[in-house]
Structure formats: C-alpha cells, structure tokens
Design a protein that fits this description.
It is a single chain. 35% of the residues lie in helices and 25% in strands. It contains 6 helices and 13 strands. It has a 4-stranded parallel beta sheet, covered by helices on one side. A 3-stranded antiparallel beta sheet has the order 3-8-4. A 3-stranded antiparallel beta sheet has the order 5-7-6. Helix 1 packs parallel to helix 6.
C-alpha cells in the first residue's frame, strides 16, 4: 500500500506511524546497508524544547508534539536520553530584548521550569561561557537518534512492515493510473502511495 523512501528517522517514523494506525502494507527502501546512515546519525543529537518558535505556529506545535512523542517512545522502549537542559545567553546589551522575547515564547509554548539566570549563575553552570544574563531551559536534552532509528526498524518489523536495505530507488514511474512503480537496481514495486523521505 505504501512505499517509503529513506531509512533515516523521518522515513522510519513515518512508516511506523502508518503501521500503528492502519492495517496497510508498508515497505521502507533505504539505499545504505543500515538505518540512519546520513543526517539522522550526523546531527547534534539535540532534543529541542520549542522555545525559539512563535507560539501557535505550526513549527511550535510540531516541535512540542514531536518532543512529547519522542520522549514517550524512548521511555516505552528503554532508549537512553538525557534532559540535561541548556542555557541561552545574551552576550551584549543589545541581545537582552531578544532574550526577553524567547522567555515569553517559552512560557507561551508551555515550557515549565524556565529560569532567568544572572551572569554569576551562568558561570556556575558553564565556567567557559561569556555572557551578561541568560535563560535556563530544562526541557532541552540529548539523545543518539541512531538508536531511535534502530528501534523503529524493530517496531516496523514487529507490526508486519518491511525495511529493505541496499535498495536505492533509481526510477519512479507515475503514469497517473492506480499504482506508482518504484524501481531499484534489483527489483520493482507497485504502490498506492509513495512517501519520499530521502535526504
């Protein structure tokens, strides 16, 4: 029913959600020999709090919803993460108003436990920081997204889906008939829906 191109965290999470919420047949095609070979395992590994996004915007809603969904998934599946928090720093007077904007956005986006911190408190938290004042954001965390991707592969298989590695898509034929043809070097599939999550 669904062919998902891309075995990074976006493609795998997409396939997992389809399988969780339907009886559809789903296959993920990944050109590499393992999941999360590119951006997923090469990013900073930050779990973002949503403090930067305009309250009510799709980015804010998506970030906060994704944050909660990710933590729930990790807790259910024993995936390690650390909500270590972070500080946002004003390094000069001209940046203080922007810090206030972020403070208000954080509150409006539902972040609890935000704390305004002084220059002395900044130094206590991070001796190497140079700033006038800051905001401590306890929701920010770190995680190995490769581990999340590996668990998603397991979950996809347990729900009856398939993840095929070494399966680079080389051609897509959409003749606007019922099915879309998806060609790899070694096989061809037909699908009702194609979801492109390639990098």
């Amino acid at each position: 029913d669904f062919v998902v191109i891309g075995g990074g965290i976006v493609g795998l999470a997409t396939a997992y959600q389809i399988l969780k919420n339907s009886k559809a047949k789903v296959i993920v095609l990944e050109k590499e020999s393992h999941p999360a070979a590119h951006q997923t395992s090469h990013n900073s590994g930050v779990i973002h709090s949503g403090i930067y996004y305009k309250p009510g915007s799709l980015k804010a809603k998506n970030c906060i919803s994704g944050y909660n969904t990710l933590l729930e998934f990790c807790r259910e599946n024993d995936i390690a993460f650390d909500l270590c928090g972070k500080i946002i720093v004003a390094t000069e007077e001209a940046e203080k108003p922007q810090l206030e904007v972020l403070w208000n956005r954080g509150l409006e986006n539902g972040l609890n436990g935000l704390k305004k911190i002084s220059q002395a408190e900044l130094k206590e938290i991070e001796p190497h920081v140079s700033g006038l004042e800051g905001i401590y954001v306890p929701q920010t965390g770190i995680i190995e997204f490769k581990k999340v991707a590996e668990k998603l592969v397991e979950k996809i298989h347990s729900l009856g889906g398939d993840v095929r590695f070494n399966s680079e898509v080389i051609e897509i034929v959409d003749n606007h008939a019922k099915k879309i043809e998806v060609h790899t070097k070694s096989f061809k599939l037909e699908a009702d829906v194609l979801v492109n999550c390639a990098g």
